[in-house]
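Retro notes, structure queue

What went well: the backlog is down to a handful. What didn't: a couple of records were mislabeled last round, so from now on we paste the full input next to the output in the thread. Example, using TRAP transporter small permease protein from Melaminivora suipulveris:
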Amino acid sequence: MQALLAFSRAIDRLNAFVGRYCIWLIFAATIISAANAVVRKIFNYSSNAFLEVQWYLFAWSFLVAAGYTLLQREHVRIDVLNSRLSKRTQVWIDIFGFALFLTPVCILVLWLGIPMLITRFESGEVSGNPGGLIRWPVWVALPLGFVLLMLQGWSELIKRVAFLKGVGPDPMGRLSSKTDEEALIEALRVQAEQERLATAAGTPSAAAR
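Corresponding output:
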């Protein structure tokens, strides 16, 4: 179990890193949008490339940051009934959701999306709009985003199984008011310290249990 928890922490660090820098994609899209508006007003000039690169960046930001959003538990949830259930029942619902819904959907998207990306790359598909951009760079965000989302789903699955086995913290607990990076670093530090103390005390491993 400890090896799986280490794998989970590595995924969390990866998606925290990605999420930290995805904000720059939004910033770039904002700058390009403002520059496009200024150029259009002052010089009476515009280009479809300016418009398309904005939605390219937007597509990249929300697709690639999907795993980070799951890490922060910010995806939309319907808690009308779920919040009335016991903690263990909620955890079991999440386990079934990650294993039987999120993972198969991600695999299906990758199975369908990767061949489409390859086709568009090989054909050099270009936007049909005058002055438009090539299309394959925005298609890269689709498999990349769903790989990160699927990995984060596995990380959340591992955390919940560890919680049920009594070797992991509550994965449903409230998030700290610290910044995202500080909260993640603190959580990883505490978990690593707990594992170190358990090893030093000779606590049986999950496999031994």
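Agreed that this is the format going forward. Reviewer comment attached to the example: Helices lie at 2-43, 48-64, 66-71, 87-123, 136-164, 180-200.
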